[in-house]
Amino acid sequence: LMAGTAGLPHVIVRFFTVPKVSDARLSAGYALIFIALLYTTAPAVSAFARLNFIDAVHQTAYEDTPGWFSNWEGIGLIGWLDKNDDGKIQYGAGAPFDGAPAFNGERGASGQRALTNKPTDNANEVYVDRDIMVLANPEIAQLPGWVIALVAAGGLAAALSTAAGLLLVISTAVSHDLMKRTFRPDLSDKQELAYARIAAATAIVIAGYLGINPPGFVAQVVAFAFGLAAASLFPAIFLGIFFKRINKQGAIAGMLVGLIFTFAYIAYFKFMAPELNNAAHWWFGISPEGIGTLGMLLNFAVAFAVSAVTAAPPEKVQELVDDIRIPSGAGVAHDPH
What we know:
- By secondary structure, this protein is mostly helical.
- The protein is built from eleven helices and six strands.
- Helix 5 packs antiparallel against helix 6 (145-183).
């Protein structure tokens, strides 16, 4: 996740909005601190959310459940199947029934929305959509309404900020880097703008489709995206700064190998053979969500190997790398001895 975050273009582009290299480094340092806080506290938040949920509903009669339970049930993101007909909710490990809740429009004996799903053999009776836990957790913990509103606003702001950054990067990459600098150097500014708009519109359509038909819950999709970024972008960025011998051929070859390997692994287990998506069939026991790490290592290996057997980068490129490390006018560190 950390390597993927470091390679995400909409994160990197934020560091170009400051006038000095030292400011960019400082902002990157602060970003790393907050990213580290996010990743280290997320498991704790998840554990406490599960604990709060258990305390609130386990062995509780349906009519005595908090208001948020029926609210989320009303929109189909929580479902309760009373397997033992005791009127009390039992919550435990495993899926309570097959698939997502399928309501028949009627009410059960305790007033719950009746389900048509086939029950499983375990004791769990509650289905909870995993995507709601972040938004539902403040309500489950009985926090004030303004805290709930703040969490909702924060989630919306994060989504809009990320979407805006990604659209900017996608449109610029397609119109300027791909079209103008690679395929059509004679492209006019008006044509470049048109390509940028087309790329942004296409990205919105694809993102909208995946939002309506997600390949997994939010955490899974984020893990896939970060894994792909770690396997493709991060090694090229890292080596481009800290290893002057890496050339264009090595960077491209490494990115292609890492991206193709990671994408193929995810696509195989998530779409082509989902019935095999378990630890018994994973390569080295690595799930699709974590395969980006292996893709990143392959990227590094291929980039080094290809760069070693091809020509070194031009001198001006190596000078550019030196200038990034020690900006002009910054001075060079001297040994006091």
